[in-house]
Prior knowledge:
By secondary structure, the protein is α/β, with parallel strands linked by helices. It contains ten helices and five strands.
Amino acid sequence: MPSTGMDRLLHSLGEADRTAAATIGRVARQVDAVIRVEVTGRSGVGKSAFVAALGPIPGAVVEQTASWDVPGASDPDLTADVVVLVVVDPPRSADRAALRAAGDRALVVLSKADTLGDPQGAADRCAEELGASCLAVAAVGEVTGLDAVRDAFAVRVAAIRSERSAALLADLRSHSGVAALRDQIEAYLASDEGVRLAAVASGEPVPAGESASQALRRALDWRHRMATTRDARAMRAALTLQRDAVRSWGRDG
């Protein structure tokens, strides 16, 4: 038997329109699909040490690519959701090529910062040369810079989840224009699961596992923001997030 609200929705939609159910199902599976992180860079920049020091990333799987600047190596084929480009000071032309290949999926880290006299100054020079923000990291020492990298990952993972949720929400709303599917989709969007989907799609932080008192404070905060903004889009987002917080409070209160 279907176990989640989305499972039940797809089962119901499949009885009316198998093609629509299959289309929505493909988009829905992407929402919770694993987020891939590729750590790449030239030979000797410290990719393995960085991966070992970083440890696991909540909500993502980390892969390390082969070095692509050694004889016989092919150009980097960077397909992950997030691409970590590990460089050393100073950056080389191969780093710039990899950064162009990664585009806005790139997160640049300056490795071996513990060997530099001025790690932040080197990171700033690296950022200027590459045209992208650069975080200085060290595998050892009291100040490794890894917390800043983990924070950057958390932001990226949340943004990807939000984009995927927004894509599913848009697909559902598009299909709700079909009379045979409208009631089932609208019922799902009005459910706790559907409200949470819209909240995540808003791009604002949506806490998991909050207490009833925390949910109530969040609901009151979003109600205040809704009452004090004049921007229609911000007002809709605040209303969505308030609804989600109220649902959370009602479940745990």
